[in-house]
UniProtKB/TrEMBL annotation:
This is Hyccin. The keyword Cell membrane applies. The lineage of its organism: Eukaryota, Metazoa, Ecdysozoa, Nematoda, Chromadorea. It comes from the Eukaryota. It is found in: Cell membrane; Cytoplasm, Cytosol. It comes from Plectus sambesii. GO terms for biological process: phosphatidylinositol phosphate biosynthetic process; protein localization to plasma membrane. Keywords: Cell membrane, Cytoplasm, Membrane.
Length: 463
């Protein structure tokens, strides 16, 4: 019979694990109500952390033996449907089970993981509903994502280094009231995106596999604050490293040494370090989707500041290299932002109004940090349509011709540069008498293309 050994040397077999799960599922309603408090829930799961790690290791090693794992999966699902702390307990197992499932599928062991597929579909079909597990309502959930405007700091930009004219743009200052209505705090929101509802799934195949698995990881990430951080953070990092490195030989970068420095290898035992750097190049490659990697990266980033820094840094580096190979731009955007943020502020301590674990990265334009003295330079005015005025050269400006008659209604002849020689000839003819004018009538000539030819004909006829 299969057994599992914990880090402290404890040994448990299938029967012992079933007895322990039965004890967990026997919680009364009063106890379940008391454990609804996030701190009480986290403490309860922390107290059962050692047995939880044994259960994870046991399922990862004996997933192919359905006689041993089927009763365990049944009890885990039974507790999940009760909701509350037992739902959080079941979600703790998902990162390890997801990695085990994908590794088995890459080896062609589809029949061996049929129990895992059944559990994934059962949990997924409950997580997409609006109500809690076991609720009779069939209304599906819609995730609302509020994308903040540029005034809210993130790992992608620093509001203090952005022009105030940009921040004052009315398109970026749409205010959205909080959930409490009139009493809620207004948040500057640029866009609101609704994701869902997700379709129900009755079979896992190549089309629905990563949609289901990404949704399961999203549920895990939403509950990270209430879970056993030691167990779930290490499970997320191990899953990321195993899935991204399988079938590849990625060279290890110096990111971990730049961030942790002399603290490397002090947070984990040597045995754990060797487990991280296991050789995955000889194993089959595992296809991954960008949405799945983003959810995995979200959990790994949480682990970075919650007791698993070395594991998380190696996982981030591995995800970055795998995304570079696969050319996933959305995943590379997040990994580059995290890496640059860590290199700017490795400690992750907040500065000014920045959130914990996030350090704003200066732009590549060399924007100085606040308080830095910079030599002021005159700025060129912005080029607009008003700047593009038509300038006429002196030779294009029409020249006023001399007056040829004197009367109450004086008229002027305007002559272009190309017709000045024609005007001179006509004026000479008038002076010598070839063209005569009546004393009671003013004679003026407006020279243009057709006017010049008319004058020539009139002069010829009179001659």
């Amino acid at each position: 019979m299969g057994r599992s050994i914990s880090s402290s040397g404890s040994v448990m077999n299938s029967e012992q694990l079933q007895e322990w799960l039965t004890e967990l599922n026997s919680l009364t309603k009063d106890e379940m109500t008391r454990l609804e408090d996030p701190e009480a829930c986290a403490q309860f799961l922390h107290d059962n952390g050692e047995s939880t790690e044994i259960l994870m290791d046991y399922l990862a090693r004996n997933y192919a033996d359905q006689d041993l794992t089927e009763p365990i999966f049944g009890q885990v699902l039974s507790g999940y449907y009760r909701g509350g702390v037992l739902r959080q307990f079941a979600l703790q197992l998902m990162p390890t089970l997801v990695a085990t499932y994908l590794i088995a599928v890459s080896k062609g062991q589809r029949r061996a993981v049929s129990m895992l597929e059944t559990m994934f579909m059962a949990v997924y079909n409950e997580e997409i509903l609006a109500g809690p597990p076991g609720c009779e309502s069939i209304l599906k959930r819609q995730d609302v994502v509020r994308i903040p405007c540029l005034r809210v700091p993130s790992i992608y930009h620093d509001p203090g280094k952005i022009s105030q004219s940009v921040l004052a743009d009315s398109a970026l200052l749409n205010r959205l009231s909080g959930p409490s209505g009139s009493g809620g705090v207004d948040l500057p929101v640029q866009l609101v995106v609704k994701i869902g509802p997700f379709p129900a799934v009755d079979r896992l195949n190549s089309e629905t596999r990563f949609m289901v698995l990404a949704r399961l990881l999203k549920s895990v990430n939403a509950s990270l604050a209430q879970l056993n951080r030691v167990a779930v953070c290490h499970a997320l990092c191990r899953a990321a490293i195993a899935l991204c490195r399988s079938g590849f030989h990625f060279p290890e970068s110096d990111l971990i040494y730049k961030v942790l420095g002399s603290a490397v290898f002090c947070q984990e035992t040597p045995k754990d370090v060797f487990a991280i750097m296991d050789d995955f190049s000889s194993k089959p490659r595992i296809g991954l989707s960008p949405s799945f990697l983003l959810e995995l990266l979200n959990g790994v980033y949480f682990a970075l500041f919650n007791g698993a820094a070395e594991w998380a840094l190696r996982a981030i580096d591995t995800i970055h290299q795998r995304s570079t190979f696969e050319m996933f731009p959305d995943v590379l955007l997040v990994t580059n932002a995290i890496v640059n943020s860590l290199l700017e502020n490795p400690s992750g301590t907040p500065k000014e109004d920045e959130p914990m674990g996030i350090r704003i990265v200066p732009s590549s334009a060399g924007v100085p940090s606040p308080g830095t003295e910079v030599e002021s330079k005159p700025r060129r005015a912005m080029i607009t349509n008003a700047s593009l005025r038509v300038r006429r050269m002196p030779e294009d400006i029409p020249v006023k011709a001399p007056e040829v008659a004197h009367s109450s209604d004086k008229k002027e002849a305007f002559i272009t540069d190309d017709e000045q020689h024609e005007d001179k000839e006509v004026m000479d003819m008038i002076e010598v008498g070839i063209v005569s004018t009546d004393e009671d009538e003013t004679f003026s000539i407006h020279l243009n293309g057709s006017g010049a030819s008319f004058v020539r004909k009139k002069i010829e006829c009179m001659a």
